[in-house]
Amino acid sequence: MxxxxxxxxxxxxxxxxxxxxxxxxxxxxxxxxxxxxxYQAQKFEEPSIQKEILLAETPDEAFSLSRKYAxxxxxxxxxxxxxxxRYIVFEKFRQNSQLTHLLVSTGDNLLTEHSHKxxxxxxxxxxxxxxxxxxxxxEVRDYFSEIEPYNLVHFVDSAKLPTQWGTFQMYGFVEQxxxxxxxxxxxxxxxxxxxxxxxxxxxxxxxxxxFSARCDCGFQLSRxxxxxxxxxxxxxxxxxxxxxxxxxxxxxxxxHLQDNGADTVEANEALGFDADMRNxxxxxxxxxxxNIKSVDLMTNNPRKVKALENAGININKRVALQEGNxxxxxxxxxxxxxxxxHMFDDAFIK
Length: 350
Description:
It is built from 14 helices and eleven strands.
């Protein structure tokens, strides 16, 4: 059974599907505030009426103006209205990437404009209408669901996350290739014209939650969140790639080998894994959802910088994150430097 998503008012949960939802659309050097503004204006040939509708303060006013000039509507409007709607809905999502991510994240659900006023664009309120707007939205969804970065992750929901450093907005995503769940913790107001300070932090249950001192992960997580708050804004991406991608149980096996003298690279390889199994391609979907085009990346790992660049992520600069050296992880840190190329100050790992 296919689940149904009904939409109508722009301030509802799925209000972004509505033509009345704020969504600036640039066409021929004019910015239309909503797809409703554009659709209503195309009913008329007279430039003065089109301009009046363009400048309407709200989509409701744009709708009312089209009724005011009902006697001046194009003679062939009923023949072309579907093509006009299809065009502007496509442009709405093509030009507003976060809305496209939200649309694709509706999955295979039936999209229905639930309107008792409209039997053509909506369902007529009783489910017997043609729901042509819903059909167009599903067609647009099918198109973008095959295109990167929209097909890399699905956004699920967001909520506030108070922490000891400050309150973050937490966004949840599901990676489509693996089904893994990932988080983006956003602090402050991101400036789309300035690369934000970010940390791509791979999950480390032992270090992050169990306070292990045999790695530097938990220490880096705490300092990264503190640095983001100190900067005034930024994003902590928490990625479910435990043990550099080998998983929690295999990490325990690797720890056992390390207890018997192997270093972290030797232990992974003895278990049949590469030294680092992580993949960052899906991160483009999360960055795209947040409208981030370039980043200042907190990392000591040049391989991570290279991997992100290969995944198409623009790195404005690398920001060192040296934290957590202690008697239990000094060998681990030296292996990171000597075998994985991590960049540490000499004084940090001596």
